[in-house]
Amino acid sequence: MYKKATACLLTLLLTFSFVGCSKPSTKEVTKEVPKSVTKEVPKEVAKDKQLTLGKNEGNLYTNDFFKMNINIPDKWIVATDEEKTEVLKLGKEVISKDDKSKAKELDLSELRTVYLLMTSQKGLKVQSTTANPNFIVIAENLSFFQGVKDGANYLDALKKQLKTVKSTMPYKFDKEIYTEKVGGKSFSVLEATIETGTIKMTQKYYACVLNGYALSFISTYTDDVGAKSLDGVIKSVTFK
């Protein structure tokens, strides 16, 4: 049951959260835009900088573009590129179904969204009957959007989007968006909960605008132990 709940929420997050969050700019986006590990950054960022996936060495994740370090808990499993692709594919199937228009939107979202890190206590593929907290880092290119000036704008749009799937995924928002310091930077935070069967799952979305991207952290947990582990991950984040 934990596996089913985690899969549903994770796929919903990885597809819906960043599709239609903001009105697209007048720039034309086509499927011919090449997909690669490195992505061109907005003009306001120095030309010699490119967004990369970052790297994992032991329990440390580093990303030079954002000058960011994150400590991964001991024995947690980092998803491979193949596993990330599998999760995204499942998400597309769940969200688009036979809706070709929605499927096209999901394809275009891949051109602006980079999934930098996915890590979980037991791995994304593990069929577990117990809690499996996870942590995700995402960067979305804001040059495709209008009106997103800061993390609060971004999360407000995300909140509205999540409310559109209330019939199938009844998210609850008990708090307003608030601000929290992460690694010395101000991040906006949105908390959401959802119940599936006997399980109550909590997601915390952290977002800030950095180098022309919306940099987001997503923590998902179902118990106090998982919450404590993920709080430790957030506290470990540093920016040079």
List keywords for this structure.
240 residues, alpha+beta, Protein Transport Mog1p, Chain A, 7-stranded antiparallel β-sheet, 4-stranded antiparallel β-sheet, 5 helices, 13 strands, 29% helix, 30% strand, globular
Outline of this structure?
The protein has 240 residues and is an alpha+beta fold.
Q: What strand order characterises the main sheet? A: 6-7-8-12-11-10-9
CATH topology call: Protein Transport Mog1p, Chain A
CATH class designation: Alpha Beta
Provide the β-strand percentage band: 25-35%
Please tally the helical runs, counting DSSP H or I stretches of 4 or more residues.
5
Query: What is the CA–CA distance across the termini?
Result: 41 Å
Largest sheet: 7 strands, antiparallel
- Strands, count: 13
CA-based gyration radius: 17 Å
SSE class = alpha+beta
Q: Which descriptor suits the 3D outline?
A: globular
Low-confidence segments: 14-38
Classified in CATH, the superfamily is Mog1/PsbP, alpha/beta/alpha sandwich
Mean pLDDT: 76
Q: Topology as H/E string?
A: HEEEEEEHHEEHEEEEHE
Provide the number of structural domains: 1
Describe this structure in words.
The protein has 240 residues and is an alpha+beta fold. The chain has a single domain, classed as Mog1/PsbP, alpha/beta/alpha sandwich (Protein Transport Mog1p, Chain A, 3-Layer(aba) Sandwich), CATH 3.40.1000. The chain is 29% helix and 30% strand. It contains five helices and 13 strands. Strands 6-7-8-12-11-10-9 form a seven-stranded antiparallel beta sheet, with helices on both faces. A four-stranded antiparallel beta sheet has the order 3-4-5-13. About 10% of the residues have low confidence. This is Lipoprotein. Keywords: Signal.
